[in-house]
Amino acid sequence: MYQGIMEGLLTRCRTLSALATCSLRHSRCIVRKCYHCAPGRGQRLVVSRMFQPQNLREDQVLSLEGRASDLTCKSQRLMLQVGLILPASPGCYHLMPYTVRAVEKLVRVIDQEMQAIGGQKINMPSLSPAELWRATGRWDLMGRELLRLKDRHGKEYCLGPTHEEAVTALVASQKKLSYKQLPLLLYQVTRKFRDEPRPRFGLLRGREFYMKDMYTFDSSSEAAQETYSLVCDAYCRLFDRLGLRWMKARADVGSIGGTMSHEFQLPVDIGEDRLVVCPSCHFSANTEIVDLSQKICPDCQGPLTETKGIEVGHTFYLGTKYSSIFNAHFTNAHGESLLAEMGCYGLGVTRILAAAIEVLSTEDCIRWPSLLAPYQVCIIPPKKGSKEAAATEIVERLYDDVTEALPQLRGEVLLDDRTHLTIGNRLKDANKLGYPFVIIASKRALEDPAHFEVWSQNTESRASCPSPLRSPELQSRAAESQEPGCC
Amino acid sequence: MYQGIMEGLLTRCRTLSALATCSLRHSRCIVRKCYHCAPGRGQRLVVSRMFQPQNLREDQVLSLEGRASDLTCKSQRLMLQVGLILPASPGCYHLMPYTVRAVEKLVRVIDQEMQAIGGQKINMPSLSPAELWRATGRWDLMGRELLRLKDRHGKEYCLGPTHEEAVTALVASQKKLSYKQLPLLLYQVTRKFRDEPRPRFGLLRGREFYMKDMYTFDSSSEAAQETYSLVCDAYCRLFDRLGLRWMKARADVGSIGGTMSHEFQLPVDIGEDRLVVCPSCHFSANTEIVDLSQKICPDCQGPLTETKGIEVGHTFYLGTKYSSIFNAHFTNAHGESLLAEMGCYGLGVTRILAAAIEVLSTEDCIRWPSLLAPYQVCIIPPKKGSKEAAATEIVERLYDDVTEALPQLRGEVLLDDRTHLTIGNRLKDANKLGYPFVIIASKRALEDPAHFEVWSQNTESRASCPSPLRSPELQSRAAESQEPGCC
After folding, report:
1. Going from the N-terminus, what domains does chain B have, and what CATH number goes with each?
2. What pTM value is reported for the model?
């Protein structure tokens, strides 16, 4: 029925398919055998079965508003209200199913960008032996931010907040590292732990959080600085792909150390970092490293303006600070053993997600970067017993047609089967949850041909179409999701 | 050139594509801009650039053999020898790039099976407040297996070895849980911590490891037992898809509790569990729960035989043990509030990987479940300066052709560019690492048409083909990778 248009979309939607958290290609078949599912509905994802977010029309929002004093920023309030996160202990949250989907999509985009520049993914333990941290002096320097524990034999560990020590010791243990293998870019995406004095803002400043940390090893200072630029460029591409406005600001090296550092910041009032920006030459820096009495750009001597930001990435050129302590050597072309020049590069994974919600959402409604939305489409069938109820079957067929013809949308389309609620009420929920597309079967669904309303929530536009796939918005979303310059 | 056959393979290889850890669809374009890569080679994955496993021809294997006394099982020895894992502290390992790829593929298969039965993926913190564990009495009961710590305010936590307490408290906090949402199947794949008295066998018994833990909530004991069967069936499908011989044995409930429990075991001599099996009626049980003086099957009274196994999965029917402590209620059709009936279900993710290597490998060579092999194909071009060196370009074109025509193999094909080594030496390395397919350009690569040798390492067969994609083995691998009954 919509085959032609669907095929067109199909060839354009490669990104979506690359990001689908679980393709469900197999599941579609297995589900049919599952006794839990009513016959014929096995392959449809329905809102009523979702654990969270769920019954927004009920008392949940009210009960949360009752303790609004705890909620110090918009993303935290919205994410708690709709049940994207649930508090476990101070600074620690349960991530609920929608959030896990969004985080997994973000990790997939990060993997693509890190592997595109030659990054190799590893996984280092959270339990980090004290002796490593004593070797660098950070066992004392990190103070109470380190969560420390002893095992049954009394041996001391911390829960790794970052892994310079571990990765440098790991590379140092490889006695045959050759200059031919450099630059070596190792990264991981794992939980990190930091005993924040005041955890707050939900996922923005937690005690347990997901971070992507990359560590690079180079044969010379010049090569290391090229690698530094390479990783920074990958970070720029990442934030561009997420559709986020970002700034790259010069920053303090803090407890990580090294000689050069930049922060990637999303400009927003709730941000805890103060930045100065030069509108003429694009100089930008954290106020930590600027003489604020002057307010003059060091590059062009123009006046600086001030803004606030959420730090979502941080890069450090480390030189040989860590490699000299752990003896991380490589062999050069002449057979000489030299210390590797290092860099380290962090992205706050759960923080990027919360920060994106903070900057994109309205006061009442969540908006996601299109690439990260947990589900791309929500289809709302008519209310049970209403005049339009006859269109229910057409809508369910639409669900099947869309997911059949557009494999990249499999697992990405939800049916809001709470048909005891009006379309209007369910549309409000869908609006709050921020599905990029909502398809509604209103009166015109009973016309011949059936017309559907397609709401594009990110652009706040809607269209009535004989097939939702003729919606210009849905088509342009598909086009958007394709990387510029990508085949 | 191979277009026709490639197209055929393409339609059959859906599983591979669904499992690719990072599709590299984007990267292919971005990489070309990357200064690290020589022109024209940007999109080729080459062995010389891999951090680990790497130069096996060098002294690494020898140095490890020197301390063979520490290596207590085959999988640990092999994984250390080739650099798949590196020790970080007792029972804690760094997972190197090949291992991370295999683990991510395994998680993808697990996600498919769990979501096919309606599982919803969540993510709970590792920091688990002591009060939850005190409520169930397990703060004391778990003894020294719990890793405990205090935060800066003196509040006590453990590092979660399992999450019955956390998930039950989470579900109990949802006051509007309706019978319509049941069965509720929540699962996560996260790091778990257990302070083993004697960590050993590499990833088989570690102190920090990845586990999939699912928790189910049902409206009645009967429904809960149906859910129990449903999850067990999903586990059977999982192990079948991995090509592993498994046993489902009745087991003790241990510190988890409940009234019924089964272990999924891979039979192998190194296994730490002793099992009794009835050859006639397929009864199987851990010796913990059997009266060994009798050696008679309780189901058919036949004689029992004994075997050893590695526990890779464990299921528990919990009843209301946890829901009654945390008041995890749901509302039934009559508006009454009732306690949920629970089950919990674990899969040792990193343990499954190591156990599979333990049972599938030879003494000297790693073999992977086909679905989990880090890379599917290794292509070995001729030695530099050899008679066959003229075929180098043909081989490199082959790499490009294969990854171009078979998108599901993108990111799955490696070129062993260490052309200072003979083909024979590199073939030995490839054999040790267990790539399912190795393609070699030997003398006949210079014939017209060029012939390649295709080694299928899992079946120990080889063929010489005008195109490697005409290899019957490679084709049947592609067919194998397709799920039976899957469209």
Report:
1. 3-70+366-480 (3.40.50.800), 100-360 (3.30.930.10)
2. 0.90
